[in-house]
Amino acid sequence: METIFDDRGMIITHHDTSVLLISDIHLGFEEELAESRGVQFPPQHPVILERIERLVKRHNISHLFIIGDVKHTILTDRYYNWEIIPEFMKTLANQVKTTVIPGNHDGDLRALLPRDIIVTDVHGILIGPKYEQVGLLHGHSWPSADILDAKMIVIGHNHPTIRRFRDASVPEIGRSSRRRYAGTVPVVLKTKLNRNCVRSAMGMLEVPEDSGCILITLPSFNELLSGISVNYPMSEFHGPFFENMCARLSESEVHSTNGIYLGSIEWFRQRFNEMIKSKSTGD
After folding, report:
1. CA 86, CA 82: separation in Å to the nearest integer?
2. At what angle do helices 79-95 and 45-58 cross, to 10 degrees?
3. Radius of gyration of the CA atoms of the chain, in A
4. Is residue 282 assigned to a domain?
5. How far apart are CA 214 and CA 264, in angstroms?
6. How many domains does the chain have?
C-alpha cells in the first residue's frame, strides 16, 4: 500500500487500485459569508469540482471518499444547498464512484444526494485489503469498534493549518519592524493514536501490547476555510480522540499538502513563542 498527498487530498494505492480521500468541502460556505458578513466570493463549487476531477484523472482514481462536511450549514434549510449540492454530487457520481462518511455539518444530507452516492454510518468504515485496512471517519464522533483494528485512521473535522506572519517594516520611511498576520497554510497532521485509550473511553476491553496506530488529519479541501492554527500554542483540536487525550496534538508531525515533512508541532510552537517574545525596534 502506498500513500500520496496532493492538493489537500490523500491518495491510497494498492496494486492497480487508487482511491482518493478528501474532507470538509463545506459547499455553500461562500454563501454563508455573504449572508452573515456581507463578504462576497465567487462560487466555490465549480473550482472544487474541477480540482477533484483533476485529481481523479491524474491518479487514475476508482473511488472517491468524502470524509464529512459536504455542506457548510448543519441543516438543509438554505436555498443554495438545494441549488448547489444535488447537481455537484451528480456530476461527481458520473465520473467516479463516490462515498460520503457524514460529518457534523451533514444533517439531512441524504435528501440532497443522488441515489448512486453511497452514504455510510457516521462511525466510519474500513477500506483496503484485510491486513492493510484504513479506517475513515470525520472525527467528531467515536469510531465503530472495527475501525480500531486499522493500522491507520484518516479523519478531517479540525482543518489543520499553520498561521503565517510577515515583517511589515519600511526602513526607507523610518517605519520600524512590525509583524503582521499573513494568512494560513493548510497542512496534514500525523499523530500516534492510543487505541487502548479509545477502547477504555468507549467501555471496551483493552488489547494487551497494542502498538497503536497512525491518525491522519486532513485539511479542509475548501480553500476559503482557514481552520485551526496548530503552531499557535493555545490551539486545541475538537473530537473525542483529541479531547480524551488518546491522540496528543502537541506530539503530532506536520506535513505539507504534498506530503513533505515540515517539523513537529512542538518545534513550530517553540518558533512561534520565540517570534512573539523577540523585541522589534521602536518607531
Report:
1. 6
2. 10
3. 20
4. no
5. 15
6. 1
